[in-house]
Design goal:
It is built from nine helices and nine strands. By secondary structure, it is α/β, with parallel strands linked by helices. It has two domains: about 140 residues, 3-Layer(aba) Sandwich (Rossmann fold); about 80 residues, SIR2/SIRT2 'Small Domain', CATH 3.30.1600.10. It has a six-stranded parallel beta sheet with strand order 3-2-1-7-8-9, sandwiched between helices. Strand 4 and strand 5 form a beta hairpin. The protein binds adenosine-5-diphosphoribose. Adenosine-5-diphosphoribose binds next to loops.
């Protein structure tokens, strides 16, 4: 694709599936094992913080043991070799993009960060967080996972929208397009006149909005796509 200078890439759980981390809405996914209202809302945390910590402690341990796959590596290579601007945004809370060497914006928070619900101080999360954990800054027993729960405002949205409104190419990798505002990013990019490409195992809820589709497992499709983008294809 000629004339591409500014790229925005959004990733979802599908990019980490081949690293062994479960997705949310595929067969047997996380939301088939747990009710969102029990583990991923502020009310859930208020009602049963021990259950919420247990859910994220298990995912934190699994993510800590996981390795990035060829798709994470390819996006890190694109970020390093791309001569123009590139913003990599993830909905994922694992650290696999960082493990692959990429600089990434976590719009839904991250497992390896803890947040104080009283003073908003952040610090590296221990592998297991527990109820009543003390904030190292204000001393309140108000530590929580630094995860954006349903009903909360994702992080860095203004900055991401600014990049989308100026981009020439928007790519979504491994996301079902069911959760906003991320699901609406493709429309922002189209309004900006950007080319849009979806890389996924199958159609998503937003497939209709993408100009191009590359179907297959991310570990195969993303490296090939990155080669084409770097070759000016
Ligand atoms: N390669 C490419 N795509 C894949 C692969 C794979 N190996 N495996 C699964 N996928 C695709 C699925 O087809 C699906 O479209 O990844 C997507 C996973 O969708 P979800 O499980 O809904 O994950 P995601 O889109 O990241 O969810 C968005 O919802 O629950 C919230 O905060 C949570 O960040 C999450 C958000």
């Amino acid at each position: 694709m000629q004339g591409i200078e500014r790229i925005v890439i959004l990733t979802g759980a599908g990019i980490s599936a081949e690293s062994g981390l479960g997705t949310f809405r595929d067969e047997g996914g996380l939301w088939a094992q747990h009710r969102i209202e029990d583990v991923a809302t502020p009310d859930a945390f208020g009602r049963n913080p021990a259950l919420v910590h247990e859910f994220y402690n298990a995912r934190r341990r699994q993510a800590a043991d996981a390795a990035p796959n060829a798709a994470h590596a390819a996006l890190a290579r694109l970020q390093a070799d791309w001569s123009g601007e590139l913003m990599l945004v993830t909905q994922n809370v694992d650290g696999l993009h960082e493990k692959a060497g990429a600089d990434v914006i976590h719009m839904h928070g991250q497992l390896d960060s803890a947040l104080c619900a009283a003073c908003a101080y952040r610090w590296p999360a221990p592998l297991d967080m527990s109820v009543g954990e003390i904030c190292p800054s204000c001393g309140a027993p108000k530590a929580r996972p630094d995860i954006v729960w349903f009903g909360e405002m994702p992080y860095h949205v203004e900055r991401i929208l600014d990049a989308l409104q100026a981009c020439d190419l928007f790519a979504a990798v491994g996301t079902s397009g069911q959760v906003y505002p991320a699901a609406g990013f493709v429309e922002e990019a189209r309004i900006a006149g950007a080319r849009t490409v979806e890389l996924n195992l199958r159609d998503s809820d937003m497939s209709y909005a993408f100009e191009y589709h590359i179907t297959g497992p991310a570990s195969e499709t993303v490296p090939r796509w990155v080669d084409r983008v770097l070759a000016g294809g």
